[in-house]
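Tokens in:
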């Protein structure tokens, strides 16, 4: 962000400091501990993550024989450091307040201030509820007109597993789903040798949005394997929780929801404010991703874009 007047810059940073302090206080009130992170990562150690990113987003720094990258994701940095040393029965509630870096198309480095939490080692449903509930509280604190999109990545994963696609076909399919491109999705499905019930389930996917009870009934009329059914059951549990908190009018279920980083394997969500086209908060469950670093543990969290929250949340 650029400023013409020094006073405007100081005023903005003063307000952002206050905002960050308020959110950190909310994290600490819930028992989360602050964690400092390095700005640099070894490319080889996180190659599985960076293979999921667009290459132009990665900022490389060459240091001797190692290829380093500026941190693009807090979650990966945290679990890469902690999981190899994980002890049975350990439960950790962590928060961070630092930057991630992306390379823009014109070659400039974009610095994004994020705050976020990670809840590691706790039973899945309990942790999901706490993390999601905290995201709701923060969004509601700064603008009560917020909407949060919610899904469970097991639903799409279960459907894709039933289709027996190549890696290239999976990437193509996810791109079409993410862009909600119904016409090309129909064309894509016509080029596949799919049972009719699975094809119908795929083509109805973009309609599975809105009231969860109604869309579950709709989903059950089409192909549904155990993985997909598990996703629906977990979402119904989450719905009961959010209804009890009084946030049901803010929660929008969308079973076609996908995330930029494809390491989630359960609850996923993105939160927005009115007139905002970029998510303020995003997060979810990523147990399987921890396994890439040595052990599979319960893991869920979210990140907040501090500047987007400042701009759209009226902070």
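Residues out:
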């Amino acid at each position: 962000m650029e400023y013409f007047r020094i006073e405007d810059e100081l005023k903005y940073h003063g307000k952002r400091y206050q905002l960050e302090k308020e959110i950190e206080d909310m994290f600490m009130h819930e028992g989360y501990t602050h964690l400092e992170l390095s700005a640099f990562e070894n490319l080889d150690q996180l190659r599985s993550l960076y293979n999921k990113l667009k290459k132009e987003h990665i900022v490389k720094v060459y240091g001797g024989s190692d290829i380093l990258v500026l941190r693009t994701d807090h979650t990966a940095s945290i679990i890469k450091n902690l999981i190899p040393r994980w002890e049975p029965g350990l439960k950790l509630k962590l928060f961070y307040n630092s930057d991630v870096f992306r390379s823009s198309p014109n070659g400039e480095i974009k610095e994004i201030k994020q705050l976020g939490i990670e809840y590691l080692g706790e039973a899945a449903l309990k942790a999901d509820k706490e993390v999601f509930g905290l995201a709701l509280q923060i969004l509601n604190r700064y603008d009560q007109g917020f909407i949060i999109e919610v899904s469970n990545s097991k639903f799409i994963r279960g459907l894709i597993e039933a289709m027996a696609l190549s890696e290239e076909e999976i990437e193509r399919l996810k791109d079409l789903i993410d862009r909600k491109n119904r016409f090309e999705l129909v064309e894509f499905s016509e080029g596949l040798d799919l049972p009719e019930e699975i094809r119908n389930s795929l083509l109805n996917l973009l309609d599975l949005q809105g009231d969860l009870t109604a869309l579950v009934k709709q989903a059950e009329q089409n192909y549904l394997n155990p993985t997909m059914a598990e996703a629906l059951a977990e979402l119904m549990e989450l719905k009961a929780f959010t209804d009890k908190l009084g946030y049901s009018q803010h929660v929008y279920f969308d079973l076609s929801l996908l995330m930029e980083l494809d390491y989630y394997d359960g609850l996923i969500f993105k939160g927005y404010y009115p007139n905002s086209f970029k998510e303020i908060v995003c997060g979810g469950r990523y147990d399987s991703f921890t396994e890439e670093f040595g052990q599979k543990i319960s893991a869920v969290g979210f990140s907040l874009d501090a500047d987007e929250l400042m701009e759209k949340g009226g902070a």
